[in-house]
Design goal:
single chain; 670 residues; alpha/beta; 6-stranded mixed beta sheet; 17 strands; globular
Amino acid sequence: MAELDQTAFARDLVADVLATAEAEHSTTPETFTRRVLEDLEQAGIVSNTFTAYHKSHGVEVHGYGWNESTDSLDLFVTDFRLSPLEEKLTKALSESLFRRLLTFVRRCEKGLRQHIDESSDVYDMCSTVEKAIAEVQHIRLFLFTNCVSTSPAPAPTELDGIPVTYETWDLRRIHRHASSGTLSEPIVVTFAPPLTCLAAPSTEPDYSVVLAVTPGQLLAELYGEHGPRLLELNVRSFLQARGSVNRGIRATLLDAPGRFLAYNNGITATASQVDFVHDGDGRPVGISRVHGLQIVNGGQTTASLHHAWKRDKADLSQVRVQMKLSVVDPERLAEIVPKISEYSNTQNKVTLVDFSSNHEYHVAIQRITRTLWAPALDGSGQETHWFYERARGQYADDLAKRSSAQQRQFRLLWPTRQKFTKSDLAKFVHSWEQLPHLVSRGAQKNFGEFMIRLQSNLPHVDTRYCQRLVAKAILFKAVDRVAAAHGAGSHKSLVTTYTVARLSQAVDRRIDLDRIWREQQVSAVLESALHELCPKVMTAVTTPLRGNHVGEWAKQIGCWDAVSRVRWVVPAALAAELADLPLQDVAVANDGGVPTGDVAEVLEVSPEEWTAIERWAKETRSLEPWQRQLASTVGRRLAAGEEIGEAQAAQAIHVRNEAMRVGFSPAYDV
């Protein structure tokens, strides 16, 4: 890492945090915390994060997270400096901040929430932490700082028998990941004693295969330590490893652990380097260490081993798992790993190539946006580009390749405010498509759902599509500023996505995105309407039903049901600006131009049956109100010959399946 690069990064980071904090009317530590957490969540290191600041005698905390995959409670504390290059994070301060976090946990355990205003974000945080302490298997304490730390994080400890680990994310670590193109540090595993293996001959210099049998206990512990990070290159880890244990795997682990090797297909893994133990003839016969371990097929097996070990207290001492380990040159990971995962997962139509940065959809958006000139906003005539970061770190890499003078020109043509990532894209699109509950589940989970939907309804990516995509980004950012102005605080991200969704619903997706692209901003009329709509949405989002916390409430379809019923009349001035027809993305047709996926399944059901579902549900009260309404809407649109969108079709199929599960029959009064 070049010192000059780190210096420039530190200065840019402070400038960016200061500008964002001012725009969002928040503090710099809060803004810095959210920025780091967004990166960590996208990398799968944390999930379900919530920011709230509390400080009292001996206590300081900036937020928490509850990682369902690893049953861990995460607490965050931040040390942000305006002059990070002139100061260091000392060992004494680091230990003090970690002690403050741990004291916060102890006080929550003793009922700290009773002394906190129930309407505050801190109360929600204290309540959740108090509940989590009785359930989690692991506590992780994170210290975020934009200074350089002078000491490593403390060694692991325990709190009432619960393991406690400590992580410091300082300037060097944050910069290293921002400039390397990947957030997660490579996972290194040491085998003691070495793992017996069979190395297969290879004719390619940058690729080889090793076969081995791995202890099940080791895999369970690895998943407990690294969670989804171990499965980052495995699309199925995102789609299937959600805390549930495969019944067949669980039954074998509990009833016949010694037969697991015979019954299970094993795992397929990749590594960037393997350290071998050799015999007297120089042949590799054992694995002593693996660098950059990733499981690309077998995520369900790995997660199930962990859950059976932790939740069922299963004895894994007799469990063995076969492993095919592919050693791949790091420079060829993007090329080879998707194919390994695709061909290893033939039993599932969702493949890694659809989830990776190399998917044709993402490649097309990058290609077009790189050459797409955005009209000048300030009247200067200086057109710019929007930078789509298809792979993490592309912007920093492109910048680093240039001289100082070229970097200034680059920033002029590609301003950082016009950079967006894959997770941002999924957030913009899902908000517009009225799926705010998915967005509220976090960047990683939302992106996974986005790729699933993309699989069955791939849009045609051309210049117009990319222009409208950027317009959705501009709209989302405008709503985000409005939400900040109305005091959304730590709930701003939730309020923003729900406001965009409610607006899209109210105008039937007839916002003139082409005009937003041409003007590179929303109109004064639209902004005025947003100021009227946003507070109404915020009230619905921050008033959860049935005792839920706001963060959990926003993840539920019931929250969208409540927001979709918020009373709001489109102002006449905005109505005059709307397009004549809803703006729909053009899908890539199959060979016969016939609808596929959920849309095709919806079309197979008659309009009369959809209407019958609505009547039956109303009479029996067997479905939620929003589900009855959706069935009625689909029936009406089909009867009128109108198109059904993919998102709506997916929800409709879910409603029909649920109706049939609880007693509806297609023969009902059709």
